[in-house]
Amino acid sequence: MPPSQKRARRYDPARTRDAVLAQFGHVREAVRTLTPEQLALPTRLGDWTVRELAAHVVLAFSQAAREPERSAPAAPKPAPTLLAWPLTTAGHAERIAAGTRALAAEHPDLDALFGEAAGRFEERVPRTGDERLLPTPAGAMRLTDFLVTRAVELVVHTDDLNAATGLGIPYDRQALAACTRLLADALAEKAPGGSVEVRVPPFAVVQCVQGPKHTRGTPPNVVETDPLTWIRLATGRTEWAHALDEARVAASGERADLSALLPLMR
Fold first, then answer.
1. pLDDT digits (tens, 9 = 90+) for 141-174
2. 52 belongs to a structural domain
3. Domain coverage including residue 144
4. Separation CA 38–CA 49 (nearest Å)
């Protein structure tokens, strides 16, 4: 049974931490080459410019280096599970947008901002497993789980920056794998079942959607795509029909239409 339907997938904390730091470094190297004209370019994220998107990357990354919760609040929110996290992000969009714009306005030197964030991260986030609880708008999360969400944020927004600038920022393989796997597992969590097999080689295979369960041989309902196309579908960067038309998704079987289940996060 896929991990999303039985228990949460386990992620190696040291590899995840290093992947997050590596992806942040890729973005920093690219951002420091941008001209003022490029920083003013629009992005596919509403009215955000490239500068604001870069500032948001710093904001998302820096959250992993915050101080842990010292005591439980009077009325604590239930801690979000890692698999449920993608479904909680849309509810905090306005607050995140406000923080992003403020950070971009207050820090004209983006490279210095990236450098400060990287230093704090390396100092405060250990490579060993850490069960500290970090405060999030959705409730406190374990640091080891929260690092996986940072891999998702960094990979998704690297793709946004590439779309806006054409820079071709590389993807750390481990960060791309963590992002792909979490979003695939989140789909299986949202639509549990065994009638559709979703394949995102080389990183993830999950079964989802209620209906007749596949047990052996070739499944009757199969969806297959590459990691970046899957990530764009799962985050609303591209539409299901568009990906099918461009042959970036192969879907066979009467239950293999995932359009009603996507996107998983925004």
1. 899 999 999 999 999 999 999 999 999 999 999 9
2. yes
3. 3-175
4. 9
